[in-house]
Amino acid sequence: MGLWKNSFNANSKVTRHGGFAIKVINDTGADSVEGTVVKPSFSVAHGVSLVGIGDPDPIGIVLDSGVPDGEEMWITTNGLAKVFYIGSVTLHYFARVTVSGDSGNEAGKLIAEPVPNNPFSTDKHFQECGHVRESRVGAGLALTYVHFN
Predict the structure, then answer these.
(1) pTM of the model
(2) Is the confidence at residue 68, as pLDDT, over 60?
(3) Cβ–Cβ under 8 Å, residues 98 and 129
């Protein structure tokens, strides 16, 4: 019990969905949106910005909506998280950053597709964000096993 007692602090926690989260600075240019995908900020220390279309550098999922730009917020870096998808998703599909060829692509949001066969694209490997845990119809949030490569 002593290990767990000291494992979390003011900058890390287990989320309501069952993920591990860390505290960062919102550098997205707007209020935070739950489920959007972020990458390290190039301009703010400890900050994150929305992952761009085709960007191979996702690191986390925004936990809560409404955090103003420049303020501290939580991102899920591993475990379970509600993730924002641009379209319908199917249980166990591969979750990845959108690319320019994806219909409806949007910065900070993901697409789900069947798990690629070997050999799979190196780009897709680095754009992977996890695996869908629940199906849904249309764009919106879906529970996802989150991990980043």
Answers:
(1) 0.89
(2) yes
(3) no
